Amino acid sequence: MALMRVARKDEIPAGTIREFQVEGLTIAIANVGDKFYAIHNTCLHRGGPLGQGVLQGVAVTCPWHGWQYDVTTGKLVMNPTIGVKTFHIETRGDDLWIEAA
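Above: the chain's sequence. Below: its structure in token form.
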């Protein structure tokens, strides 16, 4: 599948995570030390919005009930056998491109 432009790098400051719509999906993009990671935005517990959570290091905490995910793998911090989908993301100049298939 082709890559699609989703955001500018400066929309996601280092140490933050934000939500974006791509092809009907809501994806959370995290900036960890100027390296970007994209995960499915929906928490497995009760559907909380991960892109509205707090990012500490590589872990994002769901704002609804505190489940934590590693944004580099999409896996739950407390049970890495399950997790949310991750998406390939590329930086091209000042823009972020994602493969949302």
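Strands lie at 4-8, 17-22, 25-32, 35-40, 54-56, 59-61, 68-70, 86-92, 95-99.
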